[in-house]
Specification:
Strand order of the largest sheet: 1-2-3-4
Distance between the termini: 178 Å
Strand content: 15-25%
Shape: globular
C-alpha cells in the first residue's frame, strides 16, 4: 500500500473545511430569506388591517348617508303642510242646524219650568249669553213673567227668584243683556204702572251672571216694586 503524500492530506483537509464553510453559508442564506419573509408578513397584515379599516369607514359612510335619507323621508312628510293649505270645510249648514236645535232646547227648558216663551226671536244662538222671556203658563192676563238665561245653549237660571208683572229685553250683546222692569206704586193697576221703569244690566263674567244694578223688589208693601 502506497502512502499518500502529506501535501495531499493537507489539501483534502482544506477542501473539507471549505465545503463545511460553504454549507454553513448556504444555511445562513436560507435563514436570512426566512427572516425576510417573516418581516414582510406584518406589512401584509397591516394592509389587511388598512383594508378592514377602510371597509369600516366605507360602512360608516354608508350608514351616515342612509341616516339623512331617513331623516329626509320622515321630516319631509308633506301631509301637514298640504292639510294646512286646504280650504276648511263649510260650517254654515251645521251651524244653522245647531242654532235651531239650541232654540228648540231653550224653549223646552222654559216650558219645563211652567212658563211659555212670548217671543222666541229674543233668543240669539250666535251669542254666548242668551235670554228668553217666558210668561207663566195659564196666565189669563199675560202677567207673571221671568227672564230665562242660557250660556252657549245651557240653561243657567232666571233673573230673579220671583216673577215680575212684565219683563222686557231692551238690548243684548255677546255677554250682556239689559232688562226693563215697570215700577209700580202701591195701588197702581197692573196695566198702568206710575213709577216708570228700572233698567238692569246682567253681565256674564267667568261663567257667572251678575246684575250690575239692583233688581227692584216684587210685591213691596211700600215704595216702588216690579209687581
Amino acid at each position: 500500500m502506497s502512502r499518500i503524500p502529506t501535501s495531499a492530506l493537507v489539501a483534502l483537509a482544506l477542501g473539507a473545511c471549505l465545503g463545511a464553510t460553504l454549507g454553513g453559508c448556504g444555511s445562513s442564506q436560507t435563514k436570512t430569506v426566512t427572516a425576510a419573509s417573516t418581516e414582510a408578513s406584518p406589512p401584509a397584515s397591516s394592509t389587511a388591517t388598512t383594508q378592514t379599516s377602510a371597509g369600516t369607514t366605507s360602512s360608516t359612510a354608508a350608514t351616515t348617508t342612509s341616516a339623512p335619507a331617513q331623516t329626509t323621508t320622515a321630516g319631509g312628510s308633506a301631509a301637514p303642510s298640504t292639510t294646512r293649505t286646504e280650504p276648511e270645510p263649510a260650517i254654515a249648514q251645521p251651524q244653522a242646524h245647531e242654532e235651531a236645535a239650541g232654540l228648540s232646547e231653550a224653549v223646552a227648558a222654559v216650558k219645563a219650568r211652567g212658563y211659555t216663551p212670548a217671543e222666541t226671536s229674543q233668543y240669539h244662538p250666535n251669542q254666548t249669553l242668551r235670554v228668553l222671556v217666558g210668561t207663566k203658563t195659564g196666565s189669563s192676563d199675560g202677567y207673571d213673567q221671568q227672564a230665562f238665561f242660557f250660556v252657549d245653549g245651557r240653561y243657567i237660571g232666571t233673573d230673579a227668584k220671583e216673577p215680575s208683572a212684565t219683563v222686557k229685553v231692551l238690548s243684548q250683546s255677546d255677554t250682556e243683556v239689559a232688562l226693563a222692569y215697570p215700577l209700580y206704586r202701591p195701588g197702581d193697576p197692573l196695566s198702568n204702572p206710575s213709577g216708570g221703569q228700572a233698567v238692569v244690566h246682567f253681565q256674564l263674567n267667568d261663567g257667572k251672571l251678575t246684575p250690575l244694578q239692583p233688581i227692584p223688589p216684587a210685591n213691596s208693601a211700600s215704595g216702588l216694586s216690579r209687581y
